């Protein structure tokens, strides 16, 4: 099951956020951006289909679905420009194309811890997939306590004038990691005005992430025993 996290911006919404793009008044830059945006979306669709197919294969073969569900999102143009600002890059199409690897993102929520590697390995060993970036926040959690496996892969998208390699960001995490990340994100967002308020609960939040990890490890042990 693939859920659309936010509505994909339509042409009007994209246009209204494009004022910041250097050269947006020239149709050429604008057209390049729109074409690339659609290409990235197509890349995420390709990855989603690959993951769905792998999940079905595991279901048939092992009677177990590694994937609980997936969520995709396209980064809104306004967020792309914000990110360029943060990276101190010029707001040009080339900057987006060359430096932002998460225009399209897909989040894969797995049932068990070991499913993360199962899915990641099966996907990245496919002959048309290249891993561009890998960050293992599971074996090396972030200071906040955040855990997930982050990949950026390149997948060919077949366009009218041929195939083009397209980056897609993939975040893989268990149901427990997703629960923690979603709620922690909400806490942070709610207390946006005063970051100190969240810092105060840092130890507690890190502790919960660890506890959830313990629970998920134990649940997986039970699952393995039942399978044998
Ligand atoms: P950019 O993607 O370029 O910003 O840098 P990056 O890839 O180094 O960023 P990172 O690997 O930290 O991943 C960023 C994404 O991971 C965010 O958009 C969140 O979805 C998620 N994330 C990272 N850290 C946290 C955290 O502490 N809490 C929560 N809830 N999510 C996090
Ligand atoms: Mg990112």
TrEMBL record:
Which Gene3D superfamilies does the UniProt record give?
Beta Polymerase, domain 2, Nucleotidyltransferase
Q: RelA/SpoT domain: which residues?
A: 72-195
A Pfam family hit: RelA_SpoT
Q: In which pathway does it act?
A: Purine metabolism; ppGpp biosynthesis; ppGpp from GTP: step 1/2
Question: Which parts of the chain span the membrane according to its record?
Answer: none
Which biological process annotations from GO are given for this protein?
A: guanosine tetraphosphate biosynthetic process
The family database entries (PANTHER family) matched by this protein are listed as:
GTP PYROPHOSPHOKINASE YJBM (PTHR47837), GTP PYROPHOSPHOKINASE YWAC (PTHR47837:SF2)
Protein's UniProt name: RelA SpoT domain protein
Question: Per the UniProt entry, what species is this protein from, by scientific name?
Answer: Secundilactobacillus similis DSM 23365 = JCM 2765
């Amino acid at each position: 099951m693939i859920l659309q996290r936010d509505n994909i911006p339509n042409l009007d919404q994209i246009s209204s956020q494009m004022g910041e793009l250097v050269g947006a008044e020239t149709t050429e830059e604008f057209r390049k951006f729109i074409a690339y945006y659609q290409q990235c979306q197509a890349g995420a669709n390709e990855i989603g289909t690959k993951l769905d197919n792998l999940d079905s294969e595991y279901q048939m073969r092992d009677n177990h679905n590694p994937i609980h569900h997936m969520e995709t999102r396209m980064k809104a143009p306004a967020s792309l420009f914000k990110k360029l600002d943060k990276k101190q890059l010029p707001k040009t199409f080339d900057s987006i194309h060359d430096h932002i690897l998460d225009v399209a993102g897909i989040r894969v929520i797995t049932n068990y811890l070991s499913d993360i590697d199962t899915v990641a390995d099966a996907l990245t060993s496919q002959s048309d997939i290249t891993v561009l970036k890998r960050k293992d926040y599971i074996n090396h959690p972030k200071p906040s306590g955040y855990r997930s496996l982050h990949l950026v892969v390149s997948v060919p998208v077949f366009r009218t004038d041929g195939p083009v390699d397209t980056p897609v960001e993939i975040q893989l995490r268990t149901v427990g990691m997703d629960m923690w990340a979603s709620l922690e994100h909400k806490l942070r967002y709610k207390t946006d005005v005063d970051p100190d308020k969240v810092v105060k609960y840092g130890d507690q939040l890190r502790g919960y992430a660890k506890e959830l990890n313990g629970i998920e490890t134990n649940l997986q042990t039970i699952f393995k025993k039942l399978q044998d």
